[in-house]
């Protein structure tokens, strides 16, 4: 009976992931930001589903508390970190979060004392106790949250929404235990966490982006010479009167040539710093003065937009690393 219930929770996780990312991708494409209210709302089904799983699998208090530690740490990116002064003032939210920190810390410490020591191979071959495996699954999810939090702080992930999305996935899909895909490679002992698998599938999706842009440029007859072919893999031509209304990087700029004349040059890389609205308007006006009516622009594609379609191969094929090992023998 427990296996059936866990399978139902597994499909509930897939459904939550698909709907949450569909709404998130739509918001990110429309506004180029996803409000924290979106992630706060979707933490509710996350906590409900994860709580049911821990209940079904008979988790002890250290595992429950360790899961609370992971969720509490992830909450920092949404509601901030409580300060000592706010706690002393008796602010309810900060006091509650600090209390969760204490319970979570106790769960991690006592859970480590109870489950951390022992044969590591038993975790890989499944011979370890159910409780020990479950505690390590929770701690792996916690570790993924920490990785993406610091990746965001260190600007390895430039979008706050991307980091929050990956932290959310790490918690709602802490392991493959209840997420058996339609095709599950056999004979592979080690697999990456589901959130890393989604990240890899999303990265592979970017491989097809240059082909899509090239096809669009061919369809719109934007290839006039070799220079256009050099730009067509990562940019598209757009009328200048639309540039300021779209979420794009302007790749064309007016420059002064060595002979003193002025001309238009197309960059192959997007600017490191996104120009302000005033700066972009000046660049557009300068191009118009040179007689240009359109320019090469690079679309700003949010990472979560690539993660959304990546749910399909994640669901069908599971871990891409395990799949590669299985196919290569």
How does this structure look, described?
The longest helix has 30 residues. The model has no long low-confidence stretch (mean pLDDT 85). 30% of the residues are buried. The protein has 329 residues and is mostly helical. Helix content is 64%, strand content 7%. The chain is built from 15 helices and five strands. It has two domains: 175 residues, no CATH class; 149 residues, no CATH class. It has a three-stranded antiparallel sheet with strand order 1-5-2. A two-stranded antiparallel ribbon has the order 3-4.
Briefly summarize what is shown:
This protein has 329 residues and is mainly alpha-helical. Helices cover 64% and strands 7% of the residues. It has 2 domains: 2-176, no CATH class; 181-329, no CATH class.
> Beta-sheet strand percentage?
5-15%
- Termini, distance in Å? 35 Å
Number of individual domains: 2
Largest sheet: 3 strands, antiparallel
Element order, helices and strands?
Answer: HHHHHHHHHHHEHEEEHEHH
From the helix content, strand content and strand pairing, which structural class follows?
mainly alpha
Q: How much helicity do the residues have?
A: 55-70%
Query: What general outline do the C-alpha atoms trace?
Result: elongated
Strand line-up in the sheet with most strands: 1-5-2
DSSP summary: helix tally:
15
> How big is the Rg?
24 Å
Number of strands: 5
Low-pLDDT stretches are: none
Question: How much is the average pLDDT?
Answer: 85
């Amino acid at each position: 009976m427990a296996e059936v219930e866990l399978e139902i929770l597994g499909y509930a996780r897939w459904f939550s992931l698909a709907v949450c990312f569909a709404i998130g991708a739509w918001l990110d494409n429309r506004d180029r930001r996803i409000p924290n209210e979106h992630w706060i709302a979707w933490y509710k089904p996350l906590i409900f589903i994860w709580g049911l799983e821990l209940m079904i699998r008979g988790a002890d208090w250290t595992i429950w508390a360790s899961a609370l530690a992971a969720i509490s740490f992830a909450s920092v990116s949404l509601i901030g970190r409580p300060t000592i002064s706010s706690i002393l003032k008796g602010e309810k939210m900060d006091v509650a979060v600090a209390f969760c920190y204490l319970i979570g810390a106790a769960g991690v410490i006592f859970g480590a004392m109870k489950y951390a020591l022992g044969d590591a191979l038993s975790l890989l071959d499944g011979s370890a106790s159910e409780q020990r495996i479950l505690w390590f699954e929770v701690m792996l999810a916690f570790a993924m949250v920490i990785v993406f939090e610091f990746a965001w702080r260190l600007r390895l992930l430039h979008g706050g929404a991307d980091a929050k999305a990956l932290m959310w996935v790490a918690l709602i899909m802490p392991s493959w235990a209840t997420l058996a895909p339609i095709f599950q490679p056999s004979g592979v002992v080690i697999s990456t966490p589901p959130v890393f698998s989604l990240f890899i599938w999303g990265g592979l999706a970017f491989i097809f982006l240059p082909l899509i842009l090239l096809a669009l440029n061919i369809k719109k007859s934007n290839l006039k010479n070799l220079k256009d072919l050099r730009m067509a893999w990562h940019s598209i031509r757009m009328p200048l009167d639309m540039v300021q209304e779209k979420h794009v990087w302007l790749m064309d700029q007016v420059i002064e040539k060595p002979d003193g004349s002025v001309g238009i040059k197309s960059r192959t890389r997007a600017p490191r710093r996104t120009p302000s609205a005033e700066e972009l308007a000046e660049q557009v006006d300068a191009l118009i003065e040179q007689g240009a009516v359109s320019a090469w622009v690079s679309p700003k594609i949010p990472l979560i937009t690539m993660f959304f379609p990546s749910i399909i191969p994640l669901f069908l094929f599971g871990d891409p690393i395990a799949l590669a090992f299985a196919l290569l023998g």
